[in-house]
Amino acid sequence: MNGFEKRAQGIKNKIKQTTFAMLQTALDLKGMRIADIAKEARVSQVTIYNYFGSKEALLTEVIKDYAEKSIRDFEAYLNEGHSLKEKIEHILSLEKASYKELPPGLIKEMMEENRELDRFFREQYQEKTLPLTMRIVQEGKESGEISEKVSAEQVMALMQLYMNQYELVLGMAAQSEDREGFLEGIVHMFFYGICGKP
């Protein structure tokens, strides 16, 4: 990469970082304007259009980068030899962090309005997320951390139930006097039920 390409990549990265930071506090996508992104990133609007072509294309690239990095980081974590419980706790903590980093309603809005992004997330789920989750379950079965009475499909179903309602669970935790204790209790119930013991 020559000097010009390095400078160009630096500008592009700055625009994407600025856009991601603005997404974290955005109330809706329509309120985000190229003019505001350009001002915040200290570049011209023309520069943004030259690099990305449109606001939609910029937002798509920013969200794709975020998702791909999250998956890479998660896969690296799985390769560190953690227990099943640690892996599940890590998944839940990642969900909690992602809700803080990007409002879930905003991602949903983007997916509804952007077919490319919707297709991207569906592909990522099928090609990356689902196989990684199956790997966790399979390793848990092999290590004896998941009961032999429970099938991989049943574990996946339970995890999906939790993930589908995690936004609601986080909202309930936020209203609790002991937010962290509330979430720890949810993790405990995931592994041991309401009557089980660790």
Automatic annotation (TrEMBL):
Domain of life, source organism: Bacteria
InterPro entries for this protein: Homeodomain-like_sf, HTH-type_Tx_Regulator, HTH_TetR, Tet_transcr_reg_TetR-rel_C_sf
This protein's name: TetR/AcrR family transcriptional regulator
Entry keyword Nucleotide-binding: no
Keyword Signal listed: no
Annotation: DNA-binding region: 33-52
PROSITE patterns cross-referenced by the UniProt entry: HTH_TETR_2
